[in-house]
Amino acid sequence: MKRFKLFVALMALLRVAVCAETAFAGEQGPLFEKKLGVGKVQVRDFGVIKLHSYETMDPLGDVCFLLETPHNLVAVESPAFDDSISEWKAYTGALNKPLTDILIASHPTGGKWYGNATSHATEGARQAIASGSTRKLALSLGETFGKGFNTDIAEIDSVLSAGKKHHRRHRPRDYRSRRRV
Length: 181
Fold this sequence. Notes:
Blueprint: H1 2-18, H2 20-23, E1 31-35, E2 40-45, E3 50-55, E4 63-68, E5 73-76, H3 82-94, E6 99-103, E7 118-122, H4 123-131, H5 133-145, E8 158-160
Parallel strand pairs: 5-6, 6-7, 7-8
Antiparallel strand pairs: 1-2, 2-3, 3-4, 4-5
């Protein structure tokens, strides 16, 4: 069931990504914008799914995303600076829905700001976060920006992998063989 919910969230994110050009042109759902203490959040309403886009306004110009379903929240990436982390955590908490999952590819800093949510990444991203280029870049940025940049690297709880594709073969019905006599 949890895998299905994650699949639905990923498919919704894919739909939003595919429709992004028209969505941000104002043709796909209304845009709401809310200024927070440091950053700002833009919200697109696609009916069943809402997409929250958090612009941290930090020196890196990071953007984090949140998919809101009727039952839960799924985060995409993490903010890097402590003030952005606390602001994003407060914002997600104010939505009064459980944050169940976070997808991480290239922004692994901020530790487990997301609490008990399950963190997901592909195997390649997991390796880069654990000991590769993504980890090295995050630690280097921490040295560059110093205090306020959170270098606590999140651990990945679940590795995402491609599954078998299940195609339904369309077979035209042969109505002649089923004629009633």
